[in-house]
C-alpha cells in the first residue's frame, strides 16, 4: 500500500473520530495530542492497532508511542511504510 504522510494523517484522524466518543478540543489537526481528544492509553493502543492493520504493517506498537502528536504519528507510520 503506497500512502503518503497526508493520506496517513487523514486515516489517523478518521480513526480518532471513530474511537473517541468525546472529541472536546475542536478539529483534529497535526499538532493535536491524543489525550485532549479524549483518547486514553487504551484508545491509543486501538488506534495504533487499526493503523497497523489498515496499512498492512508488521511493527511493534511501541514503535509509535514516542509520537507527541498526530502529525508525528503520521510521520512514524509513513517512515515504517517506506521501510517495508
Automatic annotation (TrEMBL):
Q: Which domain of life is it from?
A: Bacteria
Q: Which InterPro entries match?
A: ACP-like_sf, PP-bd_ACP
Which residues are in the Carrier domain?
3-81
Query: Protein name, please?
Result: Carrier domain-containing protein
Amino acid at each position: 500500500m503506497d500512502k503518503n504522510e497526508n493520506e496517513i494523517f487523514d486515516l489517523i484522524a478518521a480513526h480518532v473520530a471513530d474511537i473517541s466518543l468525546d472529541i472536546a478540543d475542536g478539529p483534529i489537526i497535526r499538532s493535536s495530542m491524543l489525550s485532549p481528544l479524549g483518547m486514553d492509553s487504551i484508545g491509543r493502543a486501538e488506534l495504533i492497532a487499526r493503523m497497523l492493520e489498515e496499512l498492512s504493517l508488521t511493527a511493534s506498537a511501541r514503535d509509535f508511542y514516542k509520537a507527541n502528536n498526530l502529525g508525528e504519528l503520521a510521520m512514524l507510520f509513513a517512515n515504517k511504510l517506506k521501510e517495508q
